[in-house]
Amino acid sequence: MGKRKRESANAKKEARKEVSFAKLRNVPSSPRKMRLVADMVRGVEVFKALGLLHFSNKAAAADVEKLLKSAISNWEQKNGQKAEAGQLCVKSITVDAAPMLKRLRPAPQGRAYRIRKRSNHVTLFVDTINTENA
């Protein structure tokens, strides 16, 4: 690794220590379904987001709720204080495609249909709400 690349990697690593996040990898649901739930909580205060996820009918909401609780816990661990209502918000949440399982289903006349079992990776960042700028 060259010097410039190493310095850039170290700068990214130091910047990552400042933010609190949680990752959920290889979730066995399609990214499209997970993005519907992610759009629901993006930019929302965390305790309101927990309520939205808890009472949502979507199956993916349970996974995102668990991930959000983990991100809040990571923030509390990093800052050494308990999260209070109105203090934290979901800064960003991204859903990326994970590797697909490819299967074959028998079809008429000796053919086969391909089945793609999709999965996804979810990354959730939490941050404090700036009350000075509001």
The CATH architecture would be: Alpha-Beta Complex
> Proportion of β residues?
25-35%
Strand order of the largest sheet: 1-5-2
Q: Which parts are unreliable, with pLDDT below 50 for 5 consecutive residues or more?
A: none
Structural class: alpha+beta
Q: Could you spell the SSE succession in H and E letters?
A: HEHHHEEEE
CATH homology superfamily name? Ribosomal protein L22/L17
**Tally of separate helices:** 4
**Could you tell me how far the N terminus lies from the C terminus, measured between alpha carbons in angstroms?**
43 Å
- Total E-strand runs: 5
State the helicity in percent bands: 40-55%
Whole-number tally of structural domains: 1
Overall geometry comes to flat
Fill in the CATH topology: Ribosomal Protein L22, Chain A
CATH class: Alpha Beta
What value does the average pLDDT take?
93
Largest sheet entry: 3 strands, antiparallel
Please tell me how large the radius of gyration is. 19 Å
Descriptive keywords:
134 residues; Ribosomal Protein L22, Chain A; 29% strand
Task: Report on this structure.
The protein is α+β, with helices and mostly antiparallel strands. It has one domain (20-128): Ribosomal Protein L22, Chain A. Helix content is 42%, strand content 29%. It has four helices and five strands. It has helices at residues 3-18, 31-41, 46-54, 60-79; strands spanning 20-27, 88-97, 101-106, 112-117, 120-128. α3 packs antiparallel against α4 (60-79). It is flat. The protein starts with a helix and ends in a 6-residue tail after the last strand.
